[in-house]
Amino acid sequence: MKRLAALSAGLILGSPALALAAEHSAGYRGIGQLYFFFMGAILIYGVYDSFGKKAMYVVAPFIVVGLYMMLPDA
Q1: pTM of whole model > 0.70?
Q2: Contact, 62 vs 28, CB < 8 A?
Q3: How many helices (H) and strands (E) would you count in the chain?
Q4: What pLDDT, on the 0 to 100 scale, is given for residue 4?
Q5: What does the radius of gyration of the chain's CA atoms come to, in whole angstroms?
Q6: Is 43 buried (19+), middle (13-18) or exposed (0-12) by CB count in 10 A?
Protein backbone atom coordinates (compact mmCIF):
# COMPACT_ATOMS: atom_id res chain seq x y z
CA MET A 1 0.00 0.00 0.00
CA LYS A 2 2.89 2.35 0.72
CA ARG A 3 4.34 1.64 -2.71
CA LEU A 4 1.03 2.47 -4.38
CA ALA A 5 0.76 5.74 -2.44
CA ALA A 6 4.35 6.66 -3.30
CA LEU A 7 3.83 5.80 -6.97
CA SER A 8 0.63 7.80 -7.27
CA ALA A 9 2.18 10.78 -5.44
CA GLY A 10 5.21 10.62 -7.72
CA LEU A 11 3.05 10.52 -10.85
CA ILE A 12 0.86 13.40 -9.73
CA LEU A 13 3.66 15.63 -8.49
CA GLY A 14 6.12 14.67 -11.21
CA SER A 15 3.88 15.27 -14.19
CA PRO A 16 2.91 18.84 -14.99
CA ALA A 17 0.23 17.61 -17.39
CA LEU A 18 -1.70 15.99 -14.54
CA ALA A 19 -1.49 19.21 -12.55
CA LEU A 20 -2.81 21.23 -15.56
CA ALA A 21 0.40 23.22 -15.53
CA ALA A 22 0.98 25.67 -18.35
CA GLU A 23 3.90 27.69 -19.58
CA HIS A 24 4.77 30.91 -17.78
CA SER A 25 3.34 33.06 -20.56
CA ALA A 26 -0.01 31.26 -20.64
CA GLY A 27 -3.37 32.68 -19.57
CA TYR A 28 -5.84 31.53 -16.97
CA ARG A 29 -7.62 28.91 -19.09
CA GLY A 30 -6.29 25.91 -17.14
CA ILE A 31 -7.37 27.12 -13.73
CA GLY A 32 -10.59 28.39 -15.28
CA GLN A 33 -11.34 24.90 -16.56
CA LEU A 34 -10.85 23.48 -13.09
CA TYR A 35 -13.02 26.15 -11.50
CA PHE A 36 -15.83 25.80 -14.02
CA PHE A 37 -15.69 21.99 -13.85
CA PHE A 38 -16.39 21.98 -10.13
CA MET A 39 -18.96 24.75 -10.46
CA GLY A 40 -20.75 22.80 -13.22
CA ALA A 41 -20.74 19.60 -11.18
CA ILE A 42 -22.31 21.40 -8.24
CA LEU A 43 -24.93 23.09 -10.43
CA ILE A 44 -25.87 19.86 -12.20
CA TYR A 45 -26.14 18.00 -8.89
CA GLY A 46 -28.31 20.80 -7.54
CA VAL A 47 -30.70 20.47 -10.47
CA TYR A 48 -30.77 16.69 -9.98
CA ASP A 49 -31.41 17.03 -6.25
CA SER A 50 -34.15 19.63 -6.66
CA PHE A 51 -36.01 18.55 -9.78
CA GLY A 52 -35.00 14.96 -10.52
CA LYS A 53 -33.22 13.01 -13.21
CA LYS A 54 -35.31 14.13 -16.21
CA ALA A 55 -34.70 17.81 -15.51
CA MET A 56 -30.99 17.12 -15.02
CA TYR A 57 -30.79 15.50 -18.47
CA VAL A 58 -32.44 18.56 -20.01
CA VAL A 59 -30.53 21.28 -18.14
CA ALA A 60 -27.04 19.70 -17.95
CA PRO A 61 -26.08 20.43 -21.59
CA PHE A 62 -27.10 24.07 -21.18
CA ILE A 63 -24.97 24.37 -18.04
CA VAL A 64 -21.96 22.74 -19.70
CA VAL A 65 -22.18 24.89 -22.86
CA GLY A 66 -22.75 28.05 -20.84
CA LEU A 67 -19.76 27.43 -18.63
CA TYR A 68 -17.59 26.57 -21.64
CA MET A 69 -18.48 29.88 -23.27
CA MET A 70 -17.49 31.71 -20.08
CA LEU A 71 -13.92 30.32 -20.10
CA PRO A 72 -11.17 32.92 -20.51
CA ASP A 73 -9.19 33.09 -23.74
CA ALA A 74 -5.98 31.10 -23.99
Answers
A1: no
A2: no
A3: 3, 0
A4: 79
A5: 17
A6: middle
